[in-house]
Design brief:
Strand content: 15-25%
Radius of gyration: 16 Å
Number of helices: 3
Order of helices and strands: EEEEHHHE
Helix content: 25-40%
CATH class: Mainly Alpha
Distance between the termini: 39 Å
Strand order of the largest sheet: 2-3-4
CATH topology: Arc Repressor Mutant, subunit A
Oligomer: single chain
CATH architecture: Orthogonal Bundle
Largest sheet: 3 strands, antiparallel
Structural class: alpha+beta
Length: about 110
């Protein structure tokens, strides 16, 4: 008997420093003039991230690694890298668990 597998489920990102995060398809970070704040638009929902989360999400461009994001924020805030790193990874993992952040696709040579 041959095993039949279900269609490939979308893999959830396990966030690590070498991950290259980007917003998932259908997820957008936009400035909402009516609310006078940044919002994360996800299918059938609107989320209001805080200022630090917005800064992290703006850096999730599909080019930078999590390590580069951590380094940039640690320098900008003159804060310990370990502390910034733990917070960035936790936030991105939470968003990845909800399917809002995914691993950027690697360029094909």
């Amino acid at each position: 008997m041959t095993a039949v597998t279900a269609p490939a489920a979308r893999r959830r990102l396990i966030v690590a420093e070498d991950s290259i995060p980007t917003l998932a398809r259908g997820t957008r970070l936009r400035y909402d003039e009516a609310r006078q704040r940044w919002v994360l638009l996800v299918p059938e929902r609107v989320m209001a991230p805080d200022e630090i989360a917005v800064e992290i999400l703006q850096l999730c461009d599909g080019q930078r690694s999590v390590a580069a994001i951590i380094d940039q924020l640690a320098e900008a805030y003159a804060a310990p890298r370990e502390e910034i790193g733990a917070d960035v990874i936790a936030m991105l993992q939470d968003l990845a668990g909800s399917g809002f952040v995914v691993e950027a696709r690697k360029a094909v040579p």
